[in-house]
Amino acid sequence: MRLMLFILIALSGLSWSQEVDTTKIQRSTISTGERLDYKMYLGFFTVGRGTTTVDKNYFVKNERTCFKVDAFMQTLGMATWISKVNDNWGAYVDTSELITHESYRRLSEGKYKLHEVIVYDPDRDEAMVTVADRKTGKFGKPKKYSTPDKVRDIVAGFMYLRVIDFSKYQLKDTLTVSGFFEDKSYHFKIIYHGKEIVETSLGKIPCYKLIPIMPDNQLFRGENSITAWISADGNQVPVKVDAKMFIGHAGTELTGFRGLRNQFKVVY
């Protein structure tokens, strides 16, 4: 079930190499006190729910004003029989450049437990990763890793996705993506596929369509196996992510929202 949360933020989980002027854009697209709700499905069955929130308050990290952003996921119904999941991914994200200054993961997935904190040094392009002992709960000695410039973790990538000006891209344009996750840096490409109307339980939503080129792996079926749709409005929130996997058809879909800065566009 960790896969389901990854699918939810697959497109936003790695930092974009093309930098944009976030100073003006982010103030009109991101609002403190936001909440987005998602359902997670496998085939025709709803197997989990996810929520992303932006705290109503600002915080200071590395002497920079930050959003506090959290993503939560838990299994529902029959999925809990296989593996009960209750995860929280969070980050303190710079309000001016939308880069990560600190991130954390608290994962509870069946017998698997993880409490991890990562402190970033944007000036030195470094990250200090600290993991708590599963039995004692005490944190061990931090490990230092090199990171890409202006690094963004998965949660910060979710925020950064919302300030990309997709109107400047042409059909089939390629965007190069890089980021840091766990203890590694990653690089891959995403293809912009224009606009498309997506039918959801909330109604028909105009969206930008994105397809990442997936490397060979044992989870997803082919390099075009994941498709994501981002609302083509003043909020640019992830609306739907659909994945073709070897074990079946899976994905996420937006089911509710509150506290958005701009009107959410729905056509009927």
What is the secondary structure topology, with strand pairs?
Layout: H1 2-8, H2 22-29, E1 35-42, E2 45-54, E3 59-61, E4 64-75, H3 79-82, E5 86-94, E6 100-109, E7 112-121, E8 126-131, E9 143-146, H4 154-160, E10 174-181, E11 184-200, E12 203-212, E13 226-231, E14 238-245, E15 248-258
Low-pLDDT residue intervals, each spanning 5 or more residues: 1-19, 22-26
- What is the helix fraction of residues, given as a range? under 10%
- Summed up, the domain count is 1
Q: SSE string, helix = H, strand = E?
A: HHEEEEHEEEEEHEEEEEE
Shape designation: globular
Note the gap between the termini.
33 Å
Number of strands: 15
Task: Estimate what percentage of residues fall within beta strands.
Answer: over 45%
Describe the structure.
By secondary structure, this protein is mainly beta. It has one domain. Helices cover 10% and strands 49% of the residues. The protein has helices spanning 2-8, 22-29, 79-82, 154-160; strands at residues 35-42, 45-54, 59-61, 64-75, 86-94, 100-109, 112-121, 126-131, 143-146, 174-181, 184-200, 203-212, 226-231, 238-245, 248-258. The longest helix has 8 residues, at 22-29. It is globular.
